[in-house]
Recover the amino acids of this structure.
């Protein structure tokens, strides 16, 4: 009996999306910093841990991109949560700007790696590296409107990631494209999935 390995992408994307949305609401000015405690809890439990687990699940699948992305952004949430808990207020804003900028550089070349992938995935990484750069600029300049702009860009990124996570689950469950992602091989992948299920029935 063949046991089909689960697709960890939907888990990783959901963990990323939910945590990003919560933090971005604070960055956009919707809530004060007093709400950060909930973000930290989610960053540890879901954004950090669930994404790291998704990354580990990608390794035996041979998915270098998925493993690198989920493990890295899982580590990002852990590092951010640890920073806020133990080092907030002791690190210069300019250095925080470099932290965000370098995550933007990493995300930029990960975005380049998505150019032959689904359009929605491309948009997730496009909006994310712009978000990092805008937030870095806000730390370097101290301009509040840039910080708020980074928050709204982060919320857009979260919505795109939520959509892609939903598409991964719903399309696989239904065996057809319910939520399009702009993947060139979308129809072929669904067809092969249905054929495999029929053979195993």
């Amino acid at each position: 009996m063949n046991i089909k390995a689960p697709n960890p992408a939907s888990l990783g994307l959901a963990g990323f999306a939910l945590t990003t949305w919560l933090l971005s609401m604070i960055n956009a000015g919707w809530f004060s910093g007093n709400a950060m405690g909930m973000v930290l809890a989610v960053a540890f439990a879901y954004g950090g841990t669930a994404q790291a687990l998704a990354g580990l699940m990608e390794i035996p699948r041979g998915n270098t991109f998925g493993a690198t992305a989920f493990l890295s952004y899982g580590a990002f949430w852990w590092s951010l949560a640890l920073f806020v808990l133990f080092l907030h207020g002791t690190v210069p804003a300019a250095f925080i700007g470099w932290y965000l900028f370098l995550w933007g550089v990493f995300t930029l070349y990960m975005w380049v790696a998505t150019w032959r992938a689904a359009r929605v995935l491309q948009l997730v990484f496009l909006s994310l590296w712009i978000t990092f750069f805008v937030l870095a600029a806000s730390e370097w300049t101290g301009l509040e409107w840039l910080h708020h702009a980074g928050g709204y860009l982060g919320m857009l990124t979260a919505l795109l990631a939520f959509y892609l996570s939903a598409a991964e689950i719903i399309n696989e469950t239904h065996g057809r494209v319910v939520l399009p992602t702009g993947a060139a091989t979308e129809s072929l992948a669904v067809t092969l999935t249905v054929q495999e299920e029929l053979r195993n029935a």
